[in-house]
Design goal:
about 160 residues
Length: about 160
């Protein structure tokens, strides 16, 4: 089966298989089921989310891939210091993607402006839980497009 090419503006952000909660999303048609594809900015958002949800060093093909939150909890750091260490790690993790020009903002679910930003980005904030923080990250792409990803970071 021949698939149409993605729109020209989407080529920079790539294409991939659409995932939902870590599982492939299948599209059923009269020929059977095939994995759905995701293109462009939606693919970048999915890729950035995966970078944040993958524990650092667990990718067998790239040991430097993923988010490392362990270091934030190795010392006797207070909550503010832990958040800043995780914020720096989020910037390192997403800044290593060649499609990202800048990580503009990292907000945690207990930051005052978090709820307004999540709603503005089309997300839905959840209640804060002790070992799980929602993190909203806003990035500027190499094409000067602003996008956000919302992830639950467990520690």
């Amino acid at each position: 089966m021949t698939r149409p090419a993605p729109p020209p503006g989407d080529i920079l952000y790539g294409s991939g298989f659409r995932l939902r909660d870590g599982d492939l999303v299948l599209a059923a048609d009269h020929h059977g089921s095939e994995p759905q594809l995701v293109h462009g900015l939606a693919n970048l958002e999915q890729a950035l989310t995966l970078r944040l949800l993958t524990p650092f060093g667990t990718d067998p093909l790239n040991a430097r891939y993923g988010l490392d939150v362990r270091r934030a909890f190795t010392g006797s750091n207070n909550r503010r210091t832990v958040k800043e260490l995780i914020r720096l790690e989020v910037v390192r993790t997403l800044g290593s993607d060649p499609r990202v020009r800048e990580v503009a903002e990292v907000l945690f679910d207990d930051d005052p402006q978090f709820v307004a930003q999540v709603v503005a980005a089309g997300g839905r904030p959840s209640d804060h839980r002790p070992r799980l923080w929602q993190v909203l990250v806003t990035v500027e792409t190499v094409q000067n497009v602003t996008t956000s990803v919302l992830v639950d970071v467990e520690f």
